[in-house]
Amino acid sequence: MNWQELMMDVFDRLAARLAQVLDGLTDEELNLQPASDTGSIGFLVWVLTRNQDRDISELMGKQQLWISESWYAVFGRTPDQKETGNNFSIDQLQKFKVPDSMTLMKYYHDVLERIRDYMGGNLTELILEDESYSPTYGRGIPVYRRITGLINDGLQYAGQAAYVRALVQGYDWQKRQ
User: Fold this and answer.
1) 3-state secondary structure of 140
2) Diameter over CA atoms, the chain
3) Would you say the pTM of this structure is higher than 0.85?
4) Is-contact 132 143, C-beta < 8 A?
5) H or E stretch at 53
6) End-to-end C-alpha distance for the chain, whole angstroms
7) Would you tell me how many other CB atoms lie within 10 Å of the CB of residue 140?
8) Cα(154)–Cα(175) distance, rounded to whole angstroms?
9) CATH topology of domain 3-176
10) pLDDT digits 0-9 by tens, 33-63
11) Which residues on neighbouring strands pair with residue 133, listed in sequence order?
12) 173 has which bridge partners?
């Protein structure tokens, strides 16, 4: 196994965890906020996906799938490449709704395929050390830091979504699947 396959295994496991968290949720459960100033399961998974879409697209020098594949329209949003859910106001958070679990996972899988293309392409250990300019952050960041950031943030958002599901359905929700 090479290091690219190892990295993809992490992203694939993350996808499996998200599918488990979203499995069987009603639209109401998906969009339920445990408190008025917290994200719903759908919001947390959407933010994870938007951030991965933004970062991997920047690394590849491509337009975000959010724009190029019109995912913004599917989610009833505007084609704003900066809208990732980060820094949403409480009002924006309360109004935010995702259409359904299947749509959310379809968008995630599209982003996952882009990650797979990037990892399986010409990504070498030398490139990992290169500085990648991010218009989002307004500075250069080493490629490896962007990739490990996607993993770190992805695991945290997935864990938060699983925790919110436990708040919605009880701590043993995984046993009932």
Assistant:
1) strand
2) 47
3) yes
4) yes
5) helix 41-60
6) 32
7) 11
8) 23
9) Four Helix Bundle (Hemerythrin (Met), subunit A) (1.20.120)
10) 999 899 999 999 999 999 999 999 999 999 9
11) 140
12) none
